[in-house]
Structures are given as structure tokens and as C-alpha cells.
Amino acid sequence: MDRPYLELCDLAVGYGGRALLSHISFSLDKGGITTLTGPNGAGKSTILKTVTRRIPAVSGEIRLDGTELRAIAPRALASKMAVVLTDRARPELMTCFDVAAAGRYPYTGSFGLLTRRDREIVNDALAQVNAADISLQDFSSVSDGQRQCVLLARAIAQEPEIIVLDEPTSFLDIRHKIELLEILRRMAKERGVTILMSLHEIDLASKVSDRIVCVGAGGISAWGEPREVFSDESVRRLYGLERGFYNAALGSVELARPQGVPRVFVVGGGGYGIPYYRQLQKAGIPFYAGILPENDIDLAVAAPLAAAVVRCGAFQPAAQGEIDAARELIDTCDTVIDSGCPAGASNGAGELLSYARLRGKQILSGPEGLKEAVL
Amino acid sequence: MNERRNALRYGAVFLCLAALFLLSLVWSINSGSVRIPVGEIWRILLHRGAIERGDMAADASAFNIIWKIRLPRLLLAAVLGGALSLSGFLLQTFFRNPIAGPFVLGISSGAKMFLAIVTIALSAWMPAVPLAVTVTAAFLGSMLSMLAALVLGGRTRSMSMLLVIGIMVSYICSAVTDFLINFAREADIVNLTNWSMGSFSAASWRDVKISALIVLPTLAGVFLLSKPLSAYALGEGYALSVGLDVKRFRVVLIVLSSVLSACVTAFAGPISFVGIAVPHICRILLKSSKPILMIPASFLCGAVFCMACDLVARTVFSPTELSVGTVTSAIGAPIVIWLMASRHREQGGGSNG
């Protein structure tokens, strides 16, 4: 790992010689997954098109395996780099096998006839993407997810050192998204294939990638490991999130916090509270949450959604001061939701509920209670 | 398993096409306004040298009908029909559009316009425009109108826009032609009128030789293109990524298909629908769009189609002869409509399922 496999040095990209993004510098190690993220129209595709030589660089340099990209002959580049594009390819009367076999183009003879070895490689590529069973089906008759997998098989059959994918997960359902990213992970890890792609889903990007490149207006706003790049704050800035919230620890996205004076207190903890928080958010009802230990999963969701959260230390029972603070909030509410957190829990759930009962608050619990609260 | 089934299918299709080719050859040579017994035809065909030398007796008019009229006409229909349908296949691949064809893209109207200009311009000096001039003018006109469509369409990335531009170019050319014809003397444009009907009737051995000399090497060139053609099927982006020089490929593709269709328009006039219908028929027969199969199949099927249409044109209302363009349209257009309709149904079903 002495030198990076792909290097972009002070690159400027754009159309017709006009730079859309400039001062782009980052590099990819062999066998690593690098993901470009950023808002729509930021120029992720433009960077990828430049790297794959569909459009010329405005200025700067790209080096592939130490060689200036411009200097590589098309055929030589084809045996190093394969692509999966956003173009909706709808070829006529081609089976999935035929489509995947198109990846053998750089290796076949002048009439493009497949040898036995070519066939083996194509079948292996289809097996890699779990598409061996649809190999003989018409490409235009399979689902979007399968089609994307077959296009990936095409790229794999090209036996490249690097695969460049533009938004490979768009139009895919969650199962196919995960499947596709798992295949990429495997390609990178087992075969040492370098992967460069763009993804919309920052949650998936942070989970699958070794390196993240944030493409913001005008250039690259951050580059590094996901945990360095994706703080709650940096994602907010990158996407100009004003209302929603990105949770770096979970890699999840929350919608905006309901506005107004809360009349509801959710007694949660240990993950019991999350469905209630989400439901209240959807109904636009502001709420308090508590008492949540600093390491509690509920806190990750409650923090961005609740008007206020009463917290306690990690791995510690709730202190008296914290219980008092929660009681004060309960006093201002009409309704207390019992999310089902065990009454004996050390976060004082049981105590809070008996206090609420004592003060004559309406106590709602279970799914029915939730429905009632939303009404 | 499946490969064997496919190979069987391909083999069967090519065998059928070859059989049909022979059948239409024999049938065409055997039919016409003058009845010649089959045995006599064989004798005339097989012993040409002997009969010419006078070693063998044969009816002179039958000999002339076979060797000077029917055979060149038949072969011209075969060569040009193949060329036309191959050109259609190339254009459909290029435009990624099933209704692309030389006729739709204004090639024939360009040829006709150019021919009209040349005919009328030359009529002042010579009473009859020589065939070589007609052929050259039509050829140049085809190439120029194709070029015009490409230059105008070059700015747009959308292939359907290019198609629209092609159609518009064709209308402009037709308008210019009609304008010129309005001011021309009847006698001067007889040539043009005959040409624009589309016919193989004036075929001579020289026509057959020249068109074969143009078409067969082009066919070989197209064969060499079968690998990039297959790479192009997935779209330009993917073609580029596997190392295809897309720009050069597109130029070569357009030049080859223009040469083919220009050759047809030059020798036989505008013959519509062969270029659209025949490649579709081949795709359906082969259940594949692999260029390496489609190229020979289109050529062969186009040859059969044109020979059969020509046979219909000259025999059905005999002694009145239809123009072959009339017959190809009458047969080809319904086929295209039917194909489009069934394709649409298929795609609709596919996206639901």
C-alpha cells in the first residue's frame, strides 16, 4: 500500500471547459471503497464521469496506478476500469448473460466470440451477484434490482482493478440495496478491487465505505474515514439540513422536531421509547422524554425529536436530582406515556409512572395508548 | 442445454432463409409474362456458353429474357434488398430506435432532390441524362441528406431528436423537389418520375456488377463492425468504458449505412419499409439481436423480401407492372404496425410483471 491506486490531484471538473467543481484532491487505496456523497447537483456524477473519461478534466491530473489517466490507451483502460452507470440501458432481446458478457469486450477476438473461459468468467460474475438463476432471462424483463446486479456482473466480468459506480442503489428496494453493497464489500475485500461510487444514502455510505468524500457546492468539503467525516454537524452543513437531523452514531436520519409546548411525557429507555417518539413526531405532537442514560439507544432518537430529554449517566441509576427534574416536566404535562420500559429499570421508569398516577395524569400505554395519544 | 437450443434455432432460421432465397430465385426466374418451360430454363441457365457459341439450340427470345432481363433484375433485387435491410439494421442500432430506417431519415428524399436538381440542370444540354449521372447524383444526395441530419442533430444528445430532424430534413428535401418539378418540363423529368417510383425493372448486368461491387465489400465491413455493434447495444457510456472509440465508430457506422442505402436509392429508387420491417422480422425469428447473427440474417432476409416483392410487382397485375416500392410499402407497413403493436403489448406486460 505504498502508493494510492487512484489519485486525483487538484482536479477541476465540469462541462465545456467550465469548471463546476475545482481543487478536488483525494486518493483511493487499492481494495478500498470510497464513496462520494453530497446533495443533488453538487457534481458527484461529474467527478465520476471525469474519472471514467467520459468527459475531459478541465484542469488538474488523475493518476491511475501511477500512470496519468490521459496517457492510458482506451483498451488498456478498459481492462483496468469498469463502470456501472445511471444510464437506463434497455437493450433489445439480450439475456442477462448477454449483458454480463458485454464486459468481456476488451478480451475477445475481432468478432467478439466468447471462448469457454470467457463463458466461465461471465457465469462466475453472475454467481457473484446472485444472478446465476436469471442468466437466461431477458434483461428487460427482470426487476430493477436484478438489472443493476447484472450490470454489476458485467463490470465484474470485465475483470477490472477498479469499478466506478454512479448511484448504484437508486431505484432499488432496501433488500437489493444491502445485497448490492455487500457484493461490493466482498469484491473489495476478497479480490482487492478498488471501488469508487456515489451514493445518496449517507447512512449506507457510512456503513459500507472505507473513505467518504463529501462533495459540496464548489468542491470537496471533507474527505476521510466515515467517522471523521460524518459528524452530526458536518452532515447538517453538507446537505444544508435545517429541519431534519442526522445521527452519526446510528447513521440514521430523523425528520424535524415537532414545534410547540409539550403536553406529553414519554417514559422510555432501552429502545422501548423509539416507536412512540417517531409516532409523536409524525403526528406533530411535541413531547418530553426521560429518563435516558447517556448510552441508551432511545436517547439517539429522543435527542433530535423531543423538546427536552432528562438524561442520566451511563451505567448508573438515575440520581435523585434527575428524577426531580423529570417530575417537574411531568407536572407541566397532561399525559404520560408508558412505553413499556420495565418498572424495575434503574432509570426510574417505575417511580415516574407512579408519580404521574399520583398526580392524576392520563397514563397511556401499549399500541392502543399510542393511538389515543396521537388523537 | 439452452445454448444448443439457440444454436438449433439459428441454424433453422438460416436454413429457412437460404431455402426461401433459392425458392424465390427459382420462382421468379420461372414466372413472367412469357411462359418458358422449366426444363428450358435450366438448359438455358446451365449451358449459357454452348448456346451463345451456337453449339446448342435454344429459343433466342427465351435466352434473352432469362439472361438479359430476369436474371439481372433478380440479382439486383437480391443485392439491393439485402443492402437496404442491412442499412436499416445499422440505423436502428445507431439511433436505438426501432423505426429508424433509411427512408425515415430522409435519405431517399435527399437523393430525389439532388437527382431533380441535376436532371433539370442538365436537361438544357443533353436530352437524356446518362445512367451514371443519375446513379452518382442519387448517391451524393443520399450522403448529403444523411450528413445534414447528422450535423443538425449533432448538437442534441437525444436520439429521438435526431430522428425528428431526419424526418424534417426529408420534408424540406421533398418540398424543394416539388418546387423544382413545378417549373420543369414534363419531358425532362420523366427520368425522375420513373426513378421515384422505385423499381428494379431497368436492371442491367452493369447495375448488378456495380452495386455488388459497392454492397458486398460494405457487407464485409459491417461484419467487421459486429463486435463494436454489440458493445454499442448497451449504450454509449458502456461502449466507451470497454474501450470502444465511440466517435469513430459512429462515423463508420453512418458512412457504411449511408453507402448501402445510397446505393439502393441510386439504382432502384426509393424503396420504403424494407429497412424497417426486415430487421424486425429477423430479430423475431432469431429471438436475438446479436449483430453477428443479425447482419447475415438481415441481408439474406432483405434479399428474399425484395425478390418476393418484385415478383409480386411484376406478376400479380401482369402485364401491368407495379413499382416495387408500392409492394414493399403495402406489405411492409402493416408488418411494421403489427410489430410495433405487439412490442408495445409485450413491454407493457413486462413492466407489470
Secondary structure elements and pairings:
The complex is a heterodimer of chains A (375) and B (353).
Chain A lengths: L5 E10 L2 E11 L4 E5 L6 H8 L7 E6 L2 E2 L5 H5 L2 E4 L11 H6 L14 H13 L15 H14 L4 E5 L7 H18 L2 E5 L3 H7 L2 E6 L2 E6 L1 H4 L2 H8 L5 E3 L4 E3 L9 E4 L6 H10 L3 E7 L3 H9 L2 E5 L7 H12 L3 E4 L10 H10 L3 E4 H9 L1
Parallel strand pairs in A: 3-8, 3-9, 6-7, 7-8, 13-14, 13-16, 14-15, 16-17
Antiparallel strand pairs in A: 1-2, 1-4, 4-5, 9-10, 11-12
Helix pairs in contact in A: 4-5, 10-11, 12-13
Chain B lengths: L1 H29 L7 H9 L1 H6 L6 H36 L11 H16 L8 H23 L5 H24 L7 H8 L7 H20 L1 H7 L3 H6 L4 H23 L5 H13 L4 H25 L8 H29 L1
Helix pairs in contact in B: 1-14, 4-9, 4-12, 4-13, 4-14, 5-6, 5-7, 5-8, 5-12, 6-7, 6-12, 9-12, 13-14, 13-15, 14-15
Which terms summarize this structure?
heterodimer, A: alpha/beta, six-stranded mixed sheet, five-stranded parallel sheet, elongated, B: 353 residues, mainly alpha, 15 helices, 78% helix
